[in-house]
Write a structure and sequence with these properties.
- The complex is a heterodimer.
- Chain A folds into two domains: about 1-90 and about 400-430, Urease, subunit C, domain 1, CATH 2.30.40; about 90-375, TIM Barrel (Alpha-Beta Barrel), CATH 3.20.20.
- Chain A is built from 15 helices and 18 strands.
- Chain A has helices spanning about 1-10, 125, 135, 170, 200-225, 235, 240, 255-265, 285-290, 315-325, 335-340, 345-355, 360-365, 365-375, 420-430, and strands at about 30-40, 45-55, 60-65, 75-80, 85-90, 90-95, 140-145, 155-160, 170-180, 190, 195, 245-250, 275, 295, 330, 390-395, 405-410, 415.
- In chain A, the strands form three sheets. In chain A, strands 1, 2, 3, 4, 5, 16, 17 and 18 form an eight-stranded mixed β-sheet that branches. An eight-stranded mixed β-sheet of chain A has the order 6-7-8-9-12-13-14-15, sandwiched between helices. In chain A, strands 10-11 form a two-stranded antiparallel ribbon.
- In chain A, strand 17 and strand 18 (about 415) form a beta hairpin.
- Chain B is α/β, with parallel strands linked by helices.
- Classes of the chains: A alpha/beta, B alpha/beta.
- Chains A and B meet through strand 10, helix 12 and helix 15 of A and helix 14, helix 21, helix 22 and helix 25 of B.
Chain lengths: ~450, ~1000
């Protein structure tokens, strides 16, 4: 079966081009029916034999195959999934994929602008659709990323990108979805174990906090004025934070700072405040919830932040947040995050292994993420009216052993599931006369 | 009884000391400086073991003439009555750096400093300077804390230049105000060493293992130099380094592990050390005791933390909380274990805290006489100067303290005599004014009482005023009490008070003289009207000191609160080997039997006794029903950097084969426990990849709670890390690092050839030497023993095996050519992300591979890394492992193995072997690890699911048949830790209420090392490999 789908896709290829990234495909099928899929809807539901109708890039319906009356003529193509799993395209929030190619090579790093307050710099401008990394991500089911700048106090503005397209204009899914604010830490962990550092960071904390408040006060005043005397690109960029058209992503991990962040967001009446990080979020979940915060959780494959913490502190965080009833999604940000974005599904897998149900775990990298971004009318679940941005995996996509993406589409467009790594694999299998494993 | 003993011991016919023989010419008439001082009626603490309740100490010329009971006192003697005082021998600090400046070198140039900046016939490394003599550098003017030492009770201090590794000699000075020439007790009192590089900016050594190797090499060099018949050049460092071995050898370290390291290192050269420890010896007292080494311990106990904020308090680990609780017990525990030790004031932020903390040690169980021994007799013995210092015996230096009260409770030091020089902090003959007086003034008699302390008496005057009631005509007496200002100055007294009793109406000022024997004060003063008057006061009853009631009592209640290791998740008692019968399990054997369902496994004596066999279950075996569970051998991480102290890279030079991770294994890394929770039982701790030929590996089992020595896998083959590519070339080290050779892959090849060719020639030189007759040898200069080349020769001789960090095909190919042409095989290429491009060549060469499942894109040389690498290598018949190189991923290696199923379709059993049997093969340990086979080590993991499933959780991990990790127990330990934290935080709060100085929470951070972590202070994360 796997081969069948592959054949479909391969026939759509213009030509296999080595050492280049796969091109967006020209879509010939307007109406597509996926039959007999085990559908993980993304909203917590599961349909073991689903028929998914797709027309003009949108999902028409998701029905039970056993009761759905098939009319072949209605479809340009019908693909029998033969029990394979169908998922909404996973969304990786808060990553630099597409903004960097090789971590150690400065010329390939395009995510950290100089200066402390850069709300006006926009990640999508640097988003490189020819980055080879992107094509190793989507082959694991991650079809969208939030291209996110780093550094400074306000890093800049992120955009949600589809991992397909000729250029950033093509690829963008949601332009300028939010601004990223790096909240300072009260406690600097400098020094080392033999000479633990002091904590004169406190003074600096208040200082940076005041800078942030001042900047937001100025911005709020500025955006009230329709025709300001002098343009200020930085303040202008803040406009949509105040009117709620953009999210404010506040990167913060620990409860003392998070409490300050809540006070801050209340003061400025931020409509959609999002915590990014949130190591301590379960401790103050109620307060966060009351104040309309949502959470983009740190990569759970991480060591506990404190020596005495429970060994699986990070693994259990998703479950704890789920129990607390606060809306959250999982991020793969962290070490080597661009290339690690492809491991996002396994972070949800760990959330499942440490307490969450399978479908709830899936939601943490699909519908929850879309809801936090305000895109759940478009993506995040397999529901009628949404974009046909989805993929099929031969096995459980949350388990690295069985994650095997055989088919994927973004807005109803088929994706070419090759990448340069597969090409190199084939090239050397051929050299040695080895059998290429189907994928 | 006691009286008779000291009569016998100390009574002798008194004779005057001999005439002083001064070398220095005198300015003025001769001053013989030979006054005899007789200190009478004091309690004499002669030594920790002998106290005379009431005796006399006689001192002349800075030396004790006698210590005992009264005898004929020559009329020339100065007598000092010390009724009510105790005389103790004064303290000796043999670990000080006071008064000796650190070396100053000329400023180095731009970029890394490869050579020494010290010009002259010295060792090539700036941190090795045994030629330094503190007696030449000691300056009284620089001795800033001398006053503190004196006030804390010290009489002699041995001080050295506290900088560098071989630090030279210390000078023992007494703390009198005499010129230094008279104060030096011993010019070369001890030879000092440390594991701290100090102020040197020379690149080598940059790690503790480098420091250890450098010390080793230095002593080989010194011995070789000594053996030369006709040295062509002189080297002062080498000469002095050997000469200093005649002195007491003092090695300063910072913690218990370093004690073990220092003693082991010194043992290689038959050097007996005195080690200055870190004060945490109690945490590994068994191992410390086994070193049979005298210790010098600090009393720099941590201050309690301000834990008011529950969030911020998390920055203080349980280990640090326990350190606060337990460090005051250290001395007591040393004593209980019969370890000889001395105290030092080293490490204290404020020297004035010294005596307070000694008393704290006593309060925590250290017997007073042992405290005294550690301050006097032991330090004197450690320097071999017990005939001169440490006790109050005839002929010894007159270094003693005059103390009111008990020195180890709340006594006060009134005087500190050093070499007969008398330092007075308080007046020992201050009269005691206290008592009940009748004071006569201006014809009236008043009750007058003096109370308060001896030094600061306070007075109260009671007057009686007759009041007549105008209505009834009766008379009542009003008592008026006033508290005069009362100031005494030796025998002079002044007071002032405002009194309104009818007789006197206003301010009175008095001055008088005191006659202590009579108890009378008398003098003159002025009345409110300004006229002068006489007054007198006669004492009736003397003041009686109230019995304070709270008898001194040591509290040792918390002394058992030590875990293995002494931190979160530490064991209350060390777990031991047991027999286990695991039944109904799915066994992943890694043997021909493959995966066996519904099978059993028996563990006995640390070995696998049977695998689904029929052997009988050993008596007392614990049965584990593993229905639904999967049982495997432990994961072996071929590439790990956890559990290492102070530096994973010796990046100071391009070739550093002489260093060994085995010298610096750290057993209190929480990541050991965390990896047990991921089923890891053994690991190769590798040197980093900062240079071409790095250092030797340590092969360990993750035996949490055991000592580093016990963690090392016995009789394992030796391995060494080599590296190629960007790290070796320093490509990503910034623009200043363009000096060290090599900077290109071309240079990397030459570095290897150069090293191995030098090794080959070195080997030949030795062969020539050894094959010569003894007579010929006598005429030859012996080759110099070079530890770096020794190790390279081991590689050439196939006695040590290479694990080489590598990425791109060109360099992999290169090293195999080097190996082929020099006659060795590269055992393992690690990382080897482009191994798939040269798999055929690797196969032909015979190399193995240990790689990442899916890492790439973090640097240019991994741009063509593919996750199918392991699958191709495996299919090509190369022994292939998946490793971590990362403390976090180390506990998810089962998941990384599962990725190999995804990328390239390796079978599950083969994928599983990539983290078990294959790394065992690469480490030459497959005869005892890596599969479930009868007779192999019982390194066993019980999983909740298939080990390759992301749902799998480790439920139990055994190593050598010892249960080291148990999921349920882990939850319990966590809860226990939380409760323990609360308990100690409560104690800290009590300390705060008791007025203790608090410190803000701070995190003691252990570094997470990766291959390219440089020095000791690398970042926790960021760049990888």
């Amino acid at each position: 079966m796997k081969k069948n789908i592959l054949l479909i896709v391969l026939t759509l290829l213009f030509a296999p081009a080595f050492s280049q990234v796969p091109s967006p495909l020209v879509q010939k099928h307007k109406t597509i029916l996926l039959q007999n899929g085990a559908a993980h809807i993304g909203n917590g539901e599961f349909l073991s034999t689903a028929s998914i109708g797709i027309a003009d890039g949108k999902i028409l319906f998701v029905k039970n195959t056993l009761t759905y009356e098939l009319v072949k003529s209605e479809w340009d193509t019908i693909i029998d999934l033969n029990g394979q799993h169908v998922y909404p395209g996973f969304i990786a929030p808060n990553v630099t994929a597409g903004l960097t190619e090789i971590d150690a090579v400065r010329s390939t790093r395009d995510f950290n602008e100089t200066g402390e307050f850069n709300p006006n710099v926009r990640a999508l401008i640097a988003f490189n659709t020819d980055s080879k990394i992107l094509y190793t991500i989507r082959t694991n089911g991650v079809l969208m990323t939030q291209a996110t700048p780093r550094g400074g106090i306000i890093s800049g503005t992120s955009s949600v990108m589809a991992l397909d397209g000729w250029n950033w204009e093509d690829a963008v899914y949601k332009t300028d979805d939010g601004i990223h604010l790096n909240w300072p830490e009260k406690y600097n962990r400098y020094g080392w174990w033999a000479e633990p550092g002091g904590n004169n960071s406190n003074e600096n904390y208040t200082n940076v906090k005041n800078q942030i408040w001042d900047f937001f006060e100025r911005a709020r005043g500025y955006v009230m004025e329709k025709f300001p005397d002098e343009s200020d690109l930085k303040l202008e960029a803040m406009r949509h934070i105040f009117n709620g058209e953009q999210r404010l992503f506040i990167h913060v991990d620990y409860a003392p700072e998070m409490n300050d962040v809540v006070d801050f967001a209340r003061h400025f009446e931020i409509k959609f405040p999002v915590i990014v990080g949130g190591y301590d979020a379960p401790l103050i979940a109620d307060r966060l919830k009351e104040n309309k915060f949502t959470i983009v959780l740190n990569r759970p494959h991480a060591l506990p932040e404190f020596e005495d913490d429970f060994t699986f502190q990070y693994y259990e965080l998703p479950y704890k947040l789920h129990e607390a009833g606060i809306l959250f999604c999982i991020s793969s940000a962290g070490d080597m995050e661009a290339m690690n974005t492809r491991n996002l599904p396994f972070l949800a897998g760990t959330a499942r292994a440490y307490g969450m149900s399978e479908e709830d775990a899936i939601a943490t990298i699909s519908l929850n993420t879309a809801r936090i971004f305000g895109m759940d009318d478009q993506v995040g679940s397999l529901e009628a009216g949404k974009d046909a941005t989805l993929f099929v995996s031969q096995g459980d996509a949350l388990d690295m052993r069985t994650n095997n993406v055989t088919f994927a589409m973004i807005r109803g467009n088929y994706l070419d599931l090759t990448n340069h790594q597969k090409e190199l694999y084939e090239k050397y299998c051929k050299k040695y006369g080895l059998t290429v494993d189907e994928y | 009884m006691l009286d008779r003993i000291f009569w016998l011991t100390f009574f002798f016919v008194f004779s005057l000391g001999s005439t002083a023989q001064e070398i220095e010419p005198e300015n003025g008439v001769h001053d013989p400086h030979n006054t005899i001082y007789v200190l009478q009626n004091a309690k004499l603490v002669i030594s920790p073991d002998l106290t005379i309740p009431r005796g006399t100490l006689v001192v002349q010329n800075g030396v004790i003439l006698s210590a005992g009971i009264d005898f004929i006192v020559p009329s020339t003697a100065v007598k000092i009555d010390l009724e009510g005082f105790t005389i103790y021998p004064s303290f000796i600090d043999i670990y000080s750096g006071s008064g000796v400046a650190n070396p100053v070198y000329p400023a180095g140039g731009w970029g890394p400093q490869l050579g020494t900046l010290k010009e002259g016939p010295f060792y090539w490394n700036q941190s090795i300077h045994p030629e330094t003599n503190a007696f030449e550098l000691f300056k009284e003017t620089e001795f800033k804390d001398k006053k503190d030492y004196l006030e804390q009770g010290f009489g002699a201090v041995s001080t050295h230049q506290g900088d560098g590794i071989l630090r030279g000699t210390a000078v023992l000075v007494s703390l009198s105000d005499n010129p230094t020439v008279d104060n030096v007790i011993k010019a070369e009192a001890a030879s000092h060493y440390s594991f701290s590089k100090g102020s040197s900016n020379q690149t080598y050594p940059s790690s503790q293992m480098g420091i250890i190797a450098l010390i080793r090499q230095f002593f080989y060099d010194a011995k070789w130099y000594e053996s030369l018949i006709e040295p062509t050049k002189d080297n002062v460092s080498l000469r002095e380094g050997l000469a200093n071995l005649k002195l007491p050898q003092i090695f300063g370290v910072s913690d218990k592990l370093e004690i073990l390291r220092a003693v082991k290192l010194a043992g290689e050269f038959n050097i007996r050390l005195v080690v200055k420890g870190g004060g945490d010896e109690y945490e590994m007292i068994r191992e410390v005791k086994a070193t049979n080494t005298d210790l010098i311990v600090p009393v720099n106990f941590p201050e309690p933390y301000d834990m008011t904020d529950p969030y911020l308090s998390r920055y203080v680990s349980l280990a640090d909380l326990k350190a606060w609780e337990m460090r005051p017990y250290n001395a007591y525990i040393l004593f209980k274990n019969k370890i000889r030790f001395a105290f030092t004031a080293d490490g204290l932020k404020k020297k004035s805290q010294f005596l307070t903390n000694i008393r704290k040690s006593v309060k925590h169980g250290l017997p007073k006489e042992e405290a005294l021994r550690a301050l006097t007799e032991n330090p004197a013995k450690f320097l071999g100067l017990e005939n001169k210092l440490g006790t109050l015996e005839k002929g010894k230096l007159a270094n003693f303290l005059v103390v009111k009260g008990d020195l180890f409770e709340d006594g006060e030091i009134y005087e500190n005599w050093t070499k007969g020089d008398r330092k007075r902090f308080k007046n020992v003959s201050l009269p005691d004014y206290r008592g009940q007086y009748t004071l006569t003034l201006n014809g009236t008699i008043y009750d007058f009482s003096i109370t308060g302390s001896h030094e600061k008496p306070s007075a109260e005057l009671s007057a009686y005023k007759f009041v007549k009631d105008s209505k009834t005509g009766s008379t009542t007496i009003d008592t008026i009490k006033v508290k005069p200002e009362f100031v005494v100055n030796d025998l002079q007294v002044s007071m002032m008070f405002d009194l309104h009793d009818g007789a006197i109406e206003g301010l009175v000022q008095l001055n008088g003289s005191f006659y202590p024997k009579l108890g009378i004060m008398e003098g003159t003063g002025t009345l409110p009207n300004g006229t002068w008057t006489k007054w007198a006061a006669n004492r009736g009853d003397k003041f009686k000191e109230k019995d304070k009631g709270d008898k001194f009592k040591a509290d040792t209640s918390a002394v058992q609160n030590i875990r293995y290791p002494n931190m979160a998740y530490g064991f209350d008692t060390l777990p031991v080997k047991k027999s286990y019968y695991i039944k109904n399990a799915t066994l992943w054997t890694n043997e021909a039997e493959g995966v066996i369902r519904n099978a059993n496994l028996i563990i006995q004596d640390g070995k696998i006794k049977s695998v689904n066999g029929t052997s009988s279950v050993p008596g007392g075996a614990i049965t584990i029903d593993a229905t639904g569970k999967h049982v495997t051998c432990g994961i072996i991480d071929e590439h790990s950097h956890i559990a290492i102290s102070k530096g994973v890279n010796e990046g100071g030079q391009s070739v550093s084969a002489e260093v060994s991770i085995a010298d610096v294994v750290r057993n209190d890394d929480i990541n050991i426990y965390r990896q047990l929770s991921g089923g890891v039982t053994a690991a190769q701790l590798l040197h980093g990849s900062a240079n071409a030929i790095g250092g030797q590996s340590a092969l360990i089992k993750l035996k949490w709670g055991y000592s580093p020595e016990e963690m090392l896998i016995d009789s394992a083959d030796g391995f060494i890390k080599c590296a190629l590519g960007e790290n070796v070339k320093q490509s990503n080290w910034g623009e200043s690092n363009v000096v060290r050779y090599p900077q290109t892959r071309m240079g990397v090849e030459q570095t290897f050839y150069d090293a191995f060719i030098r090794a080959r020639e070195y080997k030949k030189a030795w062969e020539t030497y050894y094959s010569s007759s003894e007579r010929q040898q006598g005429k030859m200069e012996p080759p110099r023993r070079d530890l770096e080349l020794d190790v390279l020769c081991e590689i050439l001789d196939h006695k040590r095996f290479i694990t080489c960090h590598s990425y791109v095909q060109s360099e992999i190919n290169m090293l195999m050519h080097v190996g082929d042409s020099m006659g060795f095989t590269v055992n393992t290429f690690t990382h080897i992300l482009e191994g798939y491009k040269v798999a055929d060549k690797m196969k032909a060469h015979g190399a193995g591979a240990s790689t990442f499942a899916d890492w790439w894109a973090y640097k240019f040389e991994v741009n063509e890394a593919i996750p199918y690498n392991a699958a191709i290598l495996d299919q090509m018949g190369i022994v292939t492992a998946i490793n971590s190189d990362d403390a976090e991923m180390g506990r998810r290696l089962n998941q990384e193995a599962a990725k190999v199923v995804k990328y390239g379709g390796v079978s599950e059993e083969n994928a599983w072997k990539m983290v078990t049997l294959n790394p065992a093969k690469l480490l030459h340990l497959d005869h005892r690890m890596g599969s479930l086979k009868e007779g192999k080590d019982a390194d066993i993991v019980i999983w909740s699911d298939s080990p390759l499933s992301i749902n799998a959780r480790v439920e139990k991990t055994f190593i050598d048949g010892i249960l080291f990790y148990d999921l349920a127990q882990s939850y319990r330990m966590h809860q226990r830790d939380q409760e323990d934290r609360k308990r100690i935080i409560g104690l800290m709060n009590e300390a705060r209420n008791g007025g203790a100085e608090m410190q803000k929470p701070a995190m003691r951070k252990h570094l997470l090392y990766h291959c390219d972590t440089i020095g000791e202070e690398g970042e926790g994360s960021h760049e990888h490999e």
